[in-house]
Every structure is written in structure tokens, then in C-alpha cells.
Write a structure and sequence with these properties.
This protein is mainly alpha-helical. It has a domain of 34 residues. The chain contains 4 helices and 2 strands. A two-stranded antiparallel sheet has the order 1-2. Helix 3 runs antiparallel to helix 4. The radius of gyration is 22 Å and the shape is flat.
């Protein structure tokens, strides 16, 4: 794979800028002041939690280029249990960090 020269790189960046602007403008232009259909709104409402869950799973189980379980996975699991049981977010983060550090120190 050959590297891009400077002109091609800037053309690629410009293309990405234009494509992003067109995509962002498409919604307001197409729908204007109209309300979106209810099924569409239900899907849109679920997109943020689904994306957050995907990011958490990826960050928890990804070890470089492969999937695995490590000390950070145990820390996140303990934090999840604490949050599920109604404990504070700060407590969950502190305990997760401490458990992860302890496991890494003794492993």
C-alpha cells in the first residue's frame, strides 16, 4: 500500500468534511419541522445506550488485537455489581481501580 502525497491527503480530508456536512444536513433538510414517526423515535432513543454498551464491552474485553479477560475485566465486573446493587458511582470506580491494581500487583 503506497502512502498518500500531501495533496491527496488534503483532498481526502476535504472529502470527509463535505461528506460529514451533507450527512448532518440531510436530516433537517428532509424532515424540516415535521415530527419523526414513533417507531423511528424509539430506535433513535435506543441508539445511545446501545453504543455505550458496545464501547464498554469493547474496552472491557479487548486486549490489543484479540479478545480476553484480564484484571481490568474483573474490576469492571465488580463495579457493575456494585452499581446494580445501588451503590454510588464514585464507590464503584474506586473499588474497580483498587481491585484491578491488586490483581495486577499479585499476578
Amino acid at each position: 500500500m503506497s502512502s498518500l502525497d500531501t495533496g491527496s491527503l488534503w483532498l481526502l480530508i476535504l472529502g470527509c468534511i463535505v461528506t460529514t456536512a451533507v450527512i448532518k444536513a440531510a436530516g433537517p433538510v428532509l424532515f424540516g419541522g415535521r415530527d419523526l414517526p414513533a417507531p423511528f423515535m424509539r430506535v433513535v432513543a435506543l441508539m445511545a445506550p446501545a453504543l455505550l454498551a458496545a464501547l464498554v464491552v469493547t474496552a472491557t474485553f479487548a486486549l490489543g488485537q484479540r479478545w480476553g479477560v484480564g484484571a481490568h475485566t474483573v474490576g469492571v465486573a465488580v463495579a457493575g455489581v456494585l452499581l446494580w446493587r445501588g451503590r454510588s458511582l464514585v464507590l464503584a470506580v474506586v473499588v474497580a481501580v483498587a481491585i484491578t491494581a491488586l490483581i495486577r500487583a499479585f499476578a
